Amino acid sequence: MLIKALFTDSKNYERSLKLRRLWAIGMLCIGLVGFACYVLLVPSSDLSDYVQGFYLGAASGITAGALFLLVRTQYLLTHPRAQRQAKIKETDEQEMQIARTSAQIAGALTIFAAAVASFIVLPLSREACYALTSVIACYIFSALLSSLWLSKKL
What is the dihedral of CA 102, 105, 106, 112, to 10 degrees? Predict the structure, then answer.
């Protein structure tokens, strides 16, 4: 959904689909690197079951999402009728407003949850608190950068 929101151009929808395809290929490469790490590095290491499961789960999820995006995008690129229907749906003002509002709400809830969690985990693990604080800082920094970029673009 994030890639769809970032790469939807009502003027040149086919270009948007080609960009999505490139992102899907990039995500697929990341997933395959995760599988390679799982196959090559994990068996010969003394990593915990949790870490081993994370490698396999993350690689599987990223690869599955990338494949779904790649197949869907390729389908839209090769079927003009489906492409036309998807363009109408994705460029509809109400649909775009719903996507923007849901992204804002999700971002705000994520930052709120990270802030609450940082207070809870501080006595347990300073590193976890640093990680949560870094997520909050990354969100704020990316919001500022995207605001600057959009103010120049729009």
Answer: 180
Kindly state whether residues 61 and 129 are assigned to the same domain.
no
For 28-59, the pLDDT digits (tens) are: 999 999 999 888 888 878 888 888 888 899 99
pLDDT tens-digit readout, 107-143: 899 999 999 999 999 999 999 999 999 999 999 999 8
Give the residue numbers spanning the domain of 110.
Answer: 93-154
Q: What is the pTM of this model?
A: 0.68
d(CA 154, CA 139): 21
Helix, strand, coil percentages for the chain (3-state, nearest 5): 85, 0, 15
Q: Is 7 helix (H, G, I), strand (E, B) or coil?
A: coil
Place of tokens 């395809």: 21
